[in-house]
Amino acid sequence: MPLGKLTKETLGRAMSVLKQLHGVLAAAAPPASAAPPASDGAGAAGRSGGGGARSAGAVRVNSSEVLRLSNAFYSLVPHISYSEEGGTRGRLSPISTPKALEQKARNHRVCVWVTTVWNHRVATGRGGRACDETTPS
User: Fold this and answer.
1) DSSP string of 43-59, one letter each residue
2) Quick one: angle between helices 63-76 and 8-28, nearest 10?
């Protein structure tokens, strides 16, 4: 499919991927009523092989699943990424936080709306030019 031509079916599959990603992130989130773990006095330094301290209430996200679902979403809805050097072939960030997921979902809803309006305009013979109504035939 050419870049910029998204179908309702493709957008529906992309929304399904975002819902799966929401499930992965929600499963990793600590319950709202969970209290931070009690300190035994030893702290992170007293544990062996800990690999560093984690913040209170932090949980591990299944990073391989987040990466897989992020890649699936980016495959369905093409994105342009910018590298640190200013080029357009930078690496896309995994959608690994609730905030990033909400931003993608918001952008996705706008994309669905625009696609629906555009498809309606094309179907009714009014698509193709931005100023159809004011341009004389």
Assistant:
1) TGGGSTT--S---TT--
2) 160
State the Cα–Cα distance between residues 91 and 59, nearest whole angstrom: 25
Residue 62 CB neighbours (<10 A): 13
129 confidence band (pLDDT: 50, 70, 90):
low
Q: Which two tokens stand for residue 63?
A: 């990073």
Structure tokens at 94: 């995994």
CATH fold of 1-30+61-126, please? Poly(ADP-ribose) Polymerase; domain 1 (1.20.142)
* 43-95 per-position pLDDT tens digit: 444 434 444 444 444 456 788 999 999 999 999 988 877 777 777 677 888 99
- Inter-residue contact 80 to 87 (CB < 8 Å): no
